[in-house]
Every structure is written in C-alpha cells, then in structure tokens.
Amino acid sequence: MVKKRQISHLLVKKSPIVACCVFGLLSACTPQGDPAIAASGFRDDFERSELGPLWNKTGGNYSLVDGQLRVSGARNHPLWLKRRLPRDVRVELDVRSESEQGDIKVELFGDGKSHATSEHYTATSYVIILGGWSNTLNVIARMDEHGSDRVVGLKKRIEMGQVYHLRVERRGALVSVWLDGQKLGQMHDKQPLFGRGHDHFAFNNWGVETWFDNLHIEPL
C-alpha cells in the first residue's frame, strides 16, 4: 500500500457524544449526532485496532487489519461515516479487490443509516461500483444500482490484488469518478442528492473480499 497519512482531527477513543461536542464548535450536531466535516477536511488511515465511534456499522464483516479496512460478504450493509458531507466534495481513497470478480463499492450522499433488508437494496445515495456484474461494468448509480438511469462508465477490468486510487467528486449537479487518474465516467443529476437524508459517505460490499485505505474527504 502507499505510505500512510496522519489521521486528521479523529477522536477514535472518545464517545460519539464527546466527539459531537468537540466538533460542535465548528457546526451544529444533526439529530443523528453527526456534525459536518470541517473546512480542513477529514482523513482516516485506519492505523488502529478498532473502527471507533466515528463509524456506523450496519452489519457485515468489517474489520481493521494491518492498518487497512477489510470487508467481505456485507451484502449491502454499509459502513457509514458519522460526519455530514459538504455539498461539493472530493473523496479519495485507495482500493483493491482480492477477487477476480472485482466488485468494489462506495456510497456518497446517503442517509448515514440505511442498509439492505432484502436481496434488493435501494440506496439513499450515489453508488459507485468498480468491476461490478462479474467485473464487466463500472457504474455510477443514483440510489438504484440496477436502475435504467445509471451511468455505465469506461470499460476497465479490476485486477485482483492491485491497489487503485479512486477519486470521486461532486460539483453542483455533476458526479465524476476517476481511477488512477483516468476518468471512468460522470453523471449529471438534474435533482442532486443533498441535505438531510443525503449527506453521508459509506463503504459498501456485496460478497467478495475488498480492502480500503487512506480515506480523504475534502470540501470543494
């Protein structure tokens, strides 16, 4: 993996209430107790033994191993960050799949708590999928990853064991995705997801083993 970065303003050993009060100096807490990401941004390099109070685990096999986030078989039970996203944002992270199936997944602008309750999962967010559908499609979806309005991006196979740098940006109505600096696709949403119920980031997963590291979220 690439060299680790320092975690910025994380209080991983504090309770959610304490963390909320500290961040409350910068912004008011939501009813969920989730303050906004500060102007200086947010970082997590997962260099610890436990996820800590900044993450809402809705199910699934999420764990920290050797300074990375590992997930397998979560079956659309996201791991939500308990921080509200700014309207225009850049999210960067390192990703890899330990399967020939690829299938790397993250969510942006969701409600911070939703998860699958059946085989069919309709998200509250934009869903970014790399190497989905047996490593044949790279997709940007608005809530329903199987919907007819999803954007199928540049054809690029996800190689098993290879570390990629993923970048996702939302500027106004435009959601764009890059992988190792190569633009995979973009979605123009006439009704951009934002506000209460559409303001959180999550890692997600279906069945394969995927790994994440060096998360950086930056207001634009």
Provide the structure class. Answer: mainly beta
Q: What's the SSE pattern?
A: HEEEEEEEEHEEEEEEE
Q: Percent helix among the residues?
A: under 10%
Report the sheet-strand fraction.
35-45%
**Total number of helices:** 2
Number of strands: 15
Computed CA radius of gyration, to the nearest angstrom: 16 Å
Contiguous runs where pLDDT drops below 50 for at least 5 residues: 1-31
Structure overview:
The longest helix is centred in the first third of the chain and has 8 residues. The protein contains two helices and 15 strands. Strands 1, 3, 4, 6, 11, 12, 13 and 15 form an eight-stranded antiparallel beta sheet that branches. The chain is mostly beta strands and 220 residues long.
Question: What is the structure about, briefly put?
Answer:
This protein has 220 residues and is mainly beta. The chain has helices at residues 16-23, 132-135, and strands spanning 42-44, 55-57, 61-65, 68-72, 79-81, 89-97, 104-110, 126-131, 137-142, 151-152, 164-171, 174-179, 182-188, 200-204, 209-219.
